[in-house]
Design a protein that fits this description.
Layout: H1 13-19, H2 28-80, H3 84-140
Helix pairs in contact: 2-3
Length: 141
């Protein structure tokens, strides 16, 4: 009897190792290409998000300029109204208009932000799905 295998004499280590499926070495080129595509997708998503933020900032500045011009015009209108009743009615009208504009502008900016975020997330989701398919294909080899 073999002294090396006194503990479990029926165990054939070479057969056991021969039956084991060892994972194959991944295709390094494919892994690197996938990694590059991941970075490209992340860069593209960041670019879309940055462009969206810039569009929001531009639109916000336009809204502020328009609001300031409107305020100047409203003050001129108020100064020409002589009667207290007329002035109060004009102030009420201007406040209502200012509120409606603020709500519309806030909604518009929110929509711009949401659209930009959705585009960036869509790019990342697409790449994630592709990466999962690529990983599955690599593991199936």
């Amino acid at each position: 009897m073999n002294d090396k295998n006194k503990f479990m004499p029926e165990l054939d280590v070479s057969k056991l190792l021969g039956d084991m499926k060892m994972p194959s070495v991944p295709d390094v080129q494919a892994v690197m290409a996938a990694y590059k595509r991941n970075l490209d997708a992340l860069s593209e998503a960041n670019r879309v998000a940055l462009e969206g933020a810039q569009a929001v900032a531009r639109r916000h500045m336009e809204i502020m300029q328009s609001t300031m011009a409107g305020l100047t015009e409203n003050l001129k209108e108020l100064s020409t109204t002589a009667s207290p009743t007329g002035r109060a009615a004009k102030q009420t009208e201007l406040l209502k208009k200012a509120y409606e504009n603020a709500v519309a502008n806030t909604r518009e900016l929110g929509d711009l932000i949401q659209k930009s975020n959705a585009e960036a997330i869509a790019k990342l989701n697409t790449r994630f799905s592709e990466a999962m398919s690529e990983m599955k294909a690599l593991l199936d080899k």
